[in-house]
Structure formats: structure tokens, C-alpha cells
UniProtKB/TrEMBL annotation:
Top-level lineage group: Bacteria
GO cellular component: plasma membrane
Entry keyword Acetylation: no
Topology in the lipid bilayer: Multi-pass membrane protein
GO molecular function terms noted in the UniProt entry: transmembrane transporter activity
Organism of derivation: Sedimentisphaera cyanobacteriorum
Keyword Nucleotide-binding: no
This protein's UniProt keywords: Cell membrane, Membrane, Transmembrane, Transmembrane helix
Official protein name in the record: Ribose transport system permease protein RbsC
CDD domains found in the cross-reference section: TM_PBP1_transp_AraH_like (cd06579)
Transmembrane segments: 20-41, 53-76, 96-120, 127-145, 178-201, 286-308, 314-330
PANTHER family associated with the record: ABC TRANSPORTER PERMEASE PROTEIN YPHD-RELATED-RELATED (PTHR32196), INNER MEMBRANE ABC TRANSPORTER PERMEASE PROTEIN YJFF (PTHR32196:SF63)
Amino acid sequence: MTKDLTKSSAHFLHSPTTRALGALIVVIVLGLIFNADGAFLKWGTHRDMLRAVSVYGILACGMTIVIIAGGIDLSVGSVLALTAVLFSLISIHWQWGAALAIVLCLIAGACCGALSGFFIGKFKVQAFIATLAMMVFARGVAKWLSGGQKVSTAVQQPDGSYEYGEIPEIFNFINAKILGGNIAVVTVILLGCILISWILLKKLRQGRYIYAIGGNEEAARLSGVPVKSMKILAFGMSGLFSAAAGICQASQEFQGDPEAGISYELSAIAMVVIGGTTLQGGRGSIWLTLIGILTIGYLEKILSINAVGEDKRLMLTGIIIIAAVLLQKNK
């Protein structure tokens, strides 16, 4: 019995969840120590952290599905920019309805992801190469649609002058805070994306297929798993979440910026890896990613309220990613 207890304790201490939670607790303790004259102890700080990290977290939801399937998606930042531009054009310049704008943007993002998945599944193109190509392509489409300019309420007229329109109500809604100003709508959207990812990965047969493909693609294929369609699904979901993030980004900035989302894919990958989902595929969960989102969010917030420069923040984030990967290798 003592051996069983020791074995269970060792398993608990070395589990991905324990390691991920340990990192989060360490970061929170640092926040309590370096609390910036009590700023870290105020709810407004935590609310703002959740709001700031929500767009990255939505991207991380899609990245989690792709990484569990044994892939990687470098195009999420560019698809975010494309859908942010498209959402702003439809809502501000063309003044179409909010529901239609959201649906069209989600379809556009899902199609971008599914196209990457099609090339990966059908033609065996490496995920790194296929999504790199989509990253460049989507960024180009965003610049083509916007003419290389930010799409804002300033609408250029035929005579060259500018006419300023009103911010669409959907922008104000997504950018608002609810429940007495205690939580941002974008944070609620993030929680919705986490729930959708959990249902897909844990409650649906397609989720089990995605785990099987990431664990051993050839074994999954021989077992009758539809590998090609599941890869299209995994990357399509990543594109769908990227579109949701693009809509949130446009609403928060009140404009569609074709340069938005540059290097966002690195933050999304960092959140997934720090949470404990392995880059080798086949293992991990959306809840681990949630821990990674909170770890990165709190780390950024603590450094921000203590006036630490961006250069040091980037260096520290890089060190933490390396540490997380090394911990994975020791499992």
C-alpha cells in the first residue's frame, strides 16, 4: 500500500497539470510579493489582465487542437488581421448587419484554416510550410482588401476628402464590460471558445480521432480514422478561432489593421506549451492551455504594473518557454 501511495504521489507530482499549476502559482506568488503598492490585489488588475490576454487566448484554443493533432499553425496572426479588416469593411464601410458580418468573417477564417488542412492532409505538405504559406497569403489579402491602410470610421470620398462615420454598435458591445463592469465581453468570448474546444476534444468522436492522429498518424489511419478530414477539421477550427480573435481585435481597436496580429502565433504557441500540451502531439488538453493563458497573462501584467520594459518581458517569456519544453522532455 505504501508503494502504491508513493507511486500515486510521484505520478501526481509529475503530471502536466501539476507542473502547469505550479508555474501559475509561482507567478501569482511573485505578483503578491511585487504587488506595485497593492495594485495586484485589486480586482480591476485581474479583470484587465483577462481582457488583455483574451485575444491571444482565443488563438491558443485553435492552436491547442492543431498541436494535439501533431501540427502547428503559423497563420493565426495573419488570419486574425484578414478577418479584422474584413469585419471593419463590412460593418463600417458597407454598413451590413452585425450578424452577417460575424458569420462571413467566421466562414472566411474557417476556410483559410481548412485550406491549410487540405494541403497538409491531401498532399502531405508539412504543417510548418503550409501554414507559413497561408500566413503570407492571408496577410497579402488583408493588405489588398484595405489598400494597405487601416480600415476605420474615416471613409474616403470620390473627391479625396474624408467623411467620418459612427462606430457600429457591435464594436461597442464586444468592447464593453458586463456584470457591473467586472468582466469584459471578450473574456466571455474566450470562455466560450474554451468550452467549444473542450466539447470537441473530450465529448465528440472527432476529438478522439484528433488525439489518435497526434499520437501515431499511421496507426490511426490503419485503424480507420479519416486522417485527411480530421486534419481539415483541426486546422479549420484554428482558422475559425482566429476569425473570432480578429473580430475582437477590430472591436477593441475600432478599426481593421492589416498589420495586426504580427507574432501573435508565437504567443499562442507559448500559452499552449507552457500549459503542458506537448508539441509532439497526441497529449494535452484545453484546460492545460487555460493555465498557460493565465500564466502568461499574469506574468505580463506583473511586469507591466512594475514598469518592466518590453525588452525584458520578451527575454523572460523566451526563458520560460525553454524551461517549459525542457520539463516536457523530462516526463
